[in-house]
Inverse folding.
């Protein structure tokens, strides 16, 4: 017992040891040692009695602070039943939570699929969107016999202009032209939406000599650059291109519908090829087709930047069955824009 | 395990209720909590069921006290402990004297530190020194010291309050 108090050469039992002794919290050997000392030490006997009194009184006081009456405990089986009910309720909750989670996952998957449908459709549908925004220009067919009926979109027709006129074709070429799509995204998109069903004479719509490609607006822009020579404000009927073999920009012919009902062709390209085409058209048929005075356009260059060298001159001319002054005026409007 | 728990339930239930009552000061609530403690023991199957039961009881009582504070009913529970309506073995004077003593003990317990009160109530619930040490985190050798101090302070506080009440009664 190292913790024992020493006083006047006598060792005494400390109070906490006495409480532990009374509470029977000490080992058997410790109890024997304390009992041996108590048998000889009067002071420790008094301390033991005081500690025992405090212990007993504390127990009594605490008993008074206890509830006056405690009901008999319910049968243990009742607690077991309550425990099992709690377990069942917990399992039910877990099952429900799993079902709710599964349902939420399914809903989320469906919702994600719904929201992402545009992603999957965006690729394939892009051309479809373009098609919806483009204008289908109907096939134009040169009919074999009889006067042809010219029907023009009323919104685009000058009120002073008769809605129909008779044209008597001299020759009946068996030409069927394919449809041309003109995208609305083009700069003069407002004019491109007019559906023109034209049955025209060969003087205006005869096939051009040589090999030509019919392109839509975007293809023509890609082929020749953005600056396509055309008359502003007139609906475009078709665009024909004759490619050059030496890398030059192509010869371009843009056919447009004049409010008078006539077809106007703007020819732009290398000076010699444009001149050749103008001569051929002027010499063709009854000579109704006239040409404007040719004017220079942007020349072709070889290379770029400071090392670029001019490759050749380009000109444009406006062809049509109209007075030369009118054609010159139309050509001037194109020049100003160029 | 279930048989062991059932034996513990039969031998310890009353002690657990008393232990809980001195923390929540509500007899019915103490009984409910005691039953909840044993139901939890069924789910957890502790290795040392007796120590585990009192540890959980102490935690439940602590949670209950916090909830009572939140509900601002704690003081009401301390002062207005409902008495059983039928007390055929006590007269009205005896009931009054009992209530006074009980209120004095309650106040005296409140003067103890939390650690002293916990050790004292665990000992009163019948737990051994090692069990008390395990639950409170104290060394086993410190339990005797803590108990001696707690008993002395409880009696001093009770006697002080009792003397004050007697002086007040005489004056």
């Amino acid at each position: 017992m190292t913790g024992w108090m020493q006083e006047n050469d006598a060792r005494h039992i400390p109070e906490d040891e006495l409480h532990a002794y009374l509470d029977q919290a000490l080992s058997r050997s410790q109890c024997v040692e304390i009992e041996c000392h108590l048998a000889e030490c009067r002071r420790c006997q008094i301390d033991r009695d005081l500690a025992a009194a405090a212990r007993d009184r504390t127990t009594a006081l605490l008993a008074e602070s206890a509830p006056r009456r405690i009901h008999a405990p319910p049968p243990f089986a009742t607690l077991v039943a309550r425990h099992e009910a709690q377990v069942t309720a917990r399992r039910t909750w877990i099952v429900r939570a799993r079902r709710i989670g599964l349902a939420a996952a399914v809903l989320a998957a469906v919702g994600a699929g719904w929201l992402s449908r545009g992603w999957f459709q965006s690729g394939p549908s892009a051309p479809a969107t373009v098609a919806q925004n483009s204008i289908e220009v109907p096939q134009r067919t040169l009919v074999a016999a009889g006067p042809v009926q010219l029907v023009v979109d009323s919104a685009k027709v000058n009120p002073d202009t008769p809605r129909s006129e008779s044209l008597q074709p001299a020759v009946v070429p068996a030409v069927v032209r394919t449809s041309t799509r003109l995208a609305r995204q083009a700069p003069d998109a407002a004019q491109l939406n007019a559906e023109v069903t034209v049955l025209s004479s060969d003087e205006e719509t005869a096939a051009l000599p040589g090999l030509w490609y019919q392109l839509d607006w975007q293809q023509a822009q890609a082929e020749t650059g953005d600056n396509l020579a055309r008359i502003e404000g007139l609906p475009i009927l078709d665009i024909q291109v004759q490619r050059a073999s030496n890398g030059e920009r192509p010869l371009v012919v843009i056919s447009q519908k004049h409010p008078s009902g006539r077809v106007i062709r703007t020819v732009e390209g290398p000076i010699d090829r444009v001149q050749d085409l103008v001569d051929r058209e002027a010499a063709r048929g009854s000579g109704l087709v006239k040409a404007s005075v040719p004017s220079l356009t942007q020349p072709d260059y070889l290379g770029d930047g400071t090392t670029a060298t001019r490759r050749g001159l380009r000109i444009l001319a406006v062809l049509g069955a109209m007075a030369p002054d009118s054609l010159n005026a139309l050509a001037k409007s194109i020049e100003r824009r160029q | 395990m279930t048989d062991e728990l059932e034996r513990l339930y039969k031998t310890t239930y009353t002690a657990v209720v008393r232990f809980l009552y001195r923390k929540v000061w509500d007899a019915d609530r103490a009984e409910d909590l005691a039953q909840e403690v044993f139901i939890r023991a069924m789910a957890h199957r502790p290795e040392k069921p007796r120590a585990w039961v009192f540890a959980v009881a102490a935690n439940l009582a602590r949670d209950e006290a916090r909830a009572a504070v939140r509900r601002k009913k704690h003081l009401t529970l301390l002062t207005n402990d409902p008495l059983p309506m039928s007390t055929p073995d006590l007269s009205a004077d005896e009931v009054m004297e009992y209530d006074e003593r009980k209120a004095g003990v309650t106040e005296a317990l409140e003067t103890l530190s939390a650690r002293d009160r916990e050790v004292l109530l665990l000992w009163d619930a019948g737990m051994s020194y090692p069990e008390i040490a395990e639950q409170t985190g104290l060394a086993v050798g410190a339990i005797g010291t803590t108990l001696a101090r707690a008993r002395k302070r409880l009696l001093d506080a009770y006697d002080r309050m009792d003397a004050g009440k007697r002086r007040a009664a005489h004056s």
